[in-house]
Amino acid sequence: MLLDPADLQAIWLTVRLAAIVTVILLLVGTPVAWWLARTHSWAKGPLGAMVALPLVLPPSVLGFYLLLAMGPNGPLGWLTTKLGVGPLPFTFWGLVLASVFYSLPFMVQPLQNSFEAIGERPLQVAATLGASPLNAFFTVALPLAKPGFLTASIMTFAHTVGEFGVVLMIGGNIPGVTRVASVQIYDHVEALEYGQAHRLAAVMLIFSFLVLLGMYAWKPRPQKG
Amino acid sequence: MKTVVTFMLMAGLSLCLTISASAADLHLAVAANFTAPMEQLKPLFEKTTGHKLIISYGTVGKFYAQIKNGAPFELLISADDETPIRLEKDGLALPETRFTYAIGKLMLWSTKPGLVDAKGEVLKQAEFKRLAIASPKLAVYGAAGVEVMKKLGVYEQLQSKLVFGENISQTYQFVATANADLGFVALSQIYKNGRYAAGSHWQVPASLYPQIRQDAVLLTRGKDNPAGRALLTFLKAQETKKIIRSYGYDI
């Protein structure tokens, strides 16, 4: 066997985490991106900056704040305890929440770009033909922004797979719960198990390359609106 | 008058040159559990010798990988004795320089007063949610903690409650932020001059885990650096040992 069961478990956990985060961010990120693309409000700047923060913040900063905020003495921890869930650090859903913050710009920014590229015109035309704003969004904007959705989803998924620093800060390295592939590789390296580290690292490398290759090779022609 | 000034300038200049020639920079890798004492020792060493220490703190496994791959470390202050021995075998450390600078002690600690009792019964009752421990694969203090739980016959029962710190510092942080109810930490992290950090603790009896011998060794890269030998001598001095002991280590 190329990979031992612990490695396979880490890969499966990573894939599950990335998939769930991508779905959540599709639901959360789409309205945010739509609003950012359409609004003329003063709040556009501050909100856009907040969305982009995880791009520039070191993961250790994000992980540190999340650990304090989600801990029993933090505001998020207080909330989750009140809701009967308990504090989130060291849990799978804690990782999901952290990754949603961490990968937010990778979903919102490509979507925002593709929404902006559509421009006002197709939606105005839809409106004159009697489509409600919601109807126009689903029948006109969504199909036109399809390439943007694809790019955003792939980037979000891949970026979550590549997450390391935040997981290290709040994960607690629990097998099957928070020990994702990147942490597993780190463990192998630190324990001098270079053979296992190599094999798992190769899997990650090939995966990442194939994802990016797929994204760059598949260049949809911009659809005319 | 002019000659006197010139002479003084010359003298001053040559003095500066002598100092800069004998004072050296030393890059050293230090195990995470020794962070607090090292921070106290650093200015003392620098003041008495004129050398300068450039310190990296972290896990010994990572240091080993980095040293094997050409990291600029000249001296290793390890958390175990295995890694220095392994580096000797690899020809990356000088065997005759290795010595035990401290013997580490394991503590069970919680920030909650009254949670940890004086006999460690808390482990058997297991009325807590999460127990933090350093990764046993990577850190000697983690391996020691696992050994303790096995000896007490509670390891199987507690396994689902364990959260793993990447090193002993992160383990401490999990407990200190109350994200874990209690955890196995190094005595040096919660003890200074006879006082323990707030909360409750149990000093694990030495009979429950293998002795944690912490060795220091000069690396081949630091062979010709005068600061390397100077630091080894400094670590063996009685005054230094007194400071190391004040953090709860034996030596």
UniProtKB/TrEMBL annotation, chain A:
Keyword Cell membrane carried by entry: yes
PANTHER family, alphabetized: MOLYBDENUM TRANSPORT SYSTEM PERMEASE, MOLYBDENUM TRANSPORT SYSTEM PERMEASE PROTEIN MODB
Single Gene Ontology MF annotation: molybdate ion transmembrane transporter activity
Record function comment: Part of the binding-protein-dependent transport system for molybdenum; probably responsible for the translocation of the substrate across the membrane.
SUPFAM superfamilies: MetI-like
Name of the featured protein: Molybdenum transport system permease
Chief localisation class: membrane
The UniProt record lists the keyword Transmembrane: yes
Pfam families: BPD_transp_1
GO cellular component: plasma membrane
Family: Belongs to the binding-protein-dependent transport system permease family. CysTW subfamily.
Organism whose genome encodes this protein: Trichlorobacter thiogenes
PROSITE patterns in UniProt: ABC_TM1
ABC transmembrane type-1 domain sequence ranges: 11-215
Location relative to the cell: Cell inner membrane; Cell membrane
Lipid bilayer topology: Multi-pass membrane protein
Coiled-coil segments: none
InterPro entries hit by this protein: MetI-like (IPR000515), MetI-like_sf (IPR035906), ModB_ABC (IPR011867)
Transmembrane segments: 12-37, 49-70, 90-111, 200-218
Keywords: Cell inner membrane, Cell membrane, Membrane, Molybdenum, Transmembrane, Transmembrane helix, Transport
UniProtKB/TrEMBL annotation, chain B:
InterPro entries named among the record's database cross-references: AvModA-like_subst-bd, ModA, ModA/WtpA
Gene3D superfamilies recorded: Periplasmic binding protein-like II (3.40.190.10)
UniProt signal peptide: 1-23
Sites where the protein binds molybdate: 168
GO molecular function ontology, one term from the record: molybdate ion binding
Keywords recorded for this protein, A-Z: Metal-binding, Molybdenum, Signal
Similarity annotation: Belongs to the bacterial solute-binding protein ModA family.
Complexes and interactors: The complex is composed of two ATP-binding proteins (ModC), two transmembrane proteins (ModB) and a solute-binding protein (ModA).
Name this polypeptide is given: Molybdate transport system substrate-binding protein
